[in-house]
Specification:
The protein is mainly beta and 113 residues long. It folds into two domains: 1-43, N-terminal domain of TfIIb (Single Sheet), CATH 2.20.25.10; 60-112, SH3 type barrels (Roll), CATH 2.30.30. Helix content is 8%, strand content 29%. The protein has one helix at 33-41; strands at 16-18, 21-23, 30-32, 60-62, 66-67, 74-75, 80-81, 85-86, 93-97, 101-105, 110-112. Bound molecules: zinc ion (ZN). Zinc ion binds at residues 7, 9-10, 12, 24, 26-27, 29. The site of zinc ion has 8 residues, from loops.
Length: 113
């Protein structure tokens, strides 16, 4: 009656949770519930509109005109964005664009150069 993961050491299914730790009563192995989740997140891959894998520091171009919120202007199609930083979130690229400053972009609207 439990959805907790089996013990990675002895595969026991009697794992229980205590204060953010998973504990195995059979071999006394303890591991962090949080560490397990973080490990999954690091496997996230960012891809541009064409399916190329993006990495921190890449240069991309914008593939469609992007209107900025609050009348901040338009980032024109073809705008080159250097040294991107990949982040989690709705806008998953953190970058700085000449004339606009720091802003967030979506990977689906850019293409790797
Ligand atoms: Zn165990």
């Amino acid at each position: 009656m439990s959805t907790l993961p089996a013990c990675p050491q002895c595969q026991s299914e009697f794992t229980y949770e205590d204060g953010g730790l998973y504990i195995c009563p059979e071999c006394a192995h303890e591991w962090s519930a949080q560490a397990a989740e973080t490990a999954e997140e690091t496997t996230k891959v960012w891809r541009d509109a064409a399916g190329n894998i993006l990495q921190d520091g890449d240069t991309v171009t914008v593939i469609k005109d992007l209107k900025l919120k609050g009348g901040g202007g338009v980032v024109k199609i073809g705008t080159k964005v250097k040294n991107i930083r990949l982040v989690d979130g709705d806008h998953d690229i953190d970058c700085k664009i000449d004339g606009f400053g720091q802003m967030g972009l979506k990977t689906e609207f850019v293409k790797k150069v």
